[in-house]
Structures are given as C-alpha cells and as structure tokens.
Amino acid sequence: MVELRKDVEFAGPIVTGFTPKGYKIGDQRFEQGLLISPEQAVDWAASSLDRLDLAEILSSLNLSPHPEFLLLGSGPSMLQPPAAFRREVEAAGMGLEVMDSRAAARTWAVLRAEERWIVGAFLPIH
Predict the structure, then answer these.
(1) Which helix (H) or strand (E) holds 95?
(2) Which of 13, 23, 66, 94 has minimal Cβ neighbours within 10 Å of its Cβ?
(3) DSSP per residue, 18-86
C-alpha cells in the first residue's frame, strides 16, 4: 500500500486499506464494492463490468456539481467496461479512467489530495 504523507489533509473519505474482497476506510469495511465521492463512501453491490449503471452510481452518491470524471476500479485486473457504458459517461460530460480496483483505490487518494471533484466506483477485489 502507498504510504501517505502525514502533513496532507484530505477532504472526504480515503481508502486506508484492503480486506480480502474489498476496502477499508478507517474502521469501516466495504466488502461488496465501493462507491466513493469527496463527501461520502457507500457500499456498492455491483457484480460485474457488464452490469454497470451510471445513473445508479450518480444517484447513490448524489453529488453536486457533476463530477469531473469517474474513476472505475474494474476488480482484480484491469478490464475495460462495455462501450455503451463509456458512451453513457461521455454523454454525461464526464471523463472515465479505468484501472484495477487496488490501483484505483490508491489513485483516489492522490487525486483527492489535488482536490479533484471526482467519483469512484470500485468493484470487489477477489
């Protein structure tokens, strides 16, 4: 895991560790998957890349203004989501960055340290 500088203050939730299937934010565990914004973190029951639903992701996080982009953790390995999902994200005026879920969780902290207004959707790690 990436060591974070102690003198940096982050706004909002930051992934602080991993469980066998998921993520830790402080003492909270997210075993199924994780939706995360600068304001909150919620359990996410997405089962696969084929079943991604942008409207569900955005409504679960209820973020205003709209985020710059979606950081998508695709599970244990880096896999691209369906083209239809990519088009849906682009039509919403957002960018999409895809990487394996562990890398996405580590990248989240870096992007939040830069105060980027983003959302993350991280599939389980298993």
Answers:
(1) strand 95-99
(2) 66
(3) E-SSSEEETTEEESS-EEE-SS-EEE-----GGG--HHHHHHHHT-SS--SEEEEE-SSS--PPPHHHH
How far is Cα of residue 97 from the mean position of the Cα atoms in its chain?
A: 10
- The phi and psi torsions of 69 (rounded to 5 degrees) equal -160, 170
pLDDT at 82: 97
Question: Which is nearest to 19 in space by CA: 39, 3, 40, 43?
Answer: 43
* pLDDT mean values, one per 10 residues, the chain (126 residues): 42 91 95 94 90 94 92 96 97 97 96 94 93
- For residues 18 and 106, what is the distance between their CA atoms, to the nearest angstrom? 10
**What pTM value is reported for the model?**
0.89
Task: Read off the pLDDT of residues 28-58 as tens digits, 9 standing for 90 and up.
Answer: 999 989 999 999 999 999 878 999 999 999 9
Spatial distance between the Cα atoms of 11 and 94, rounded to a whole number of angstroms: 21
Residues in the chain, total: 126
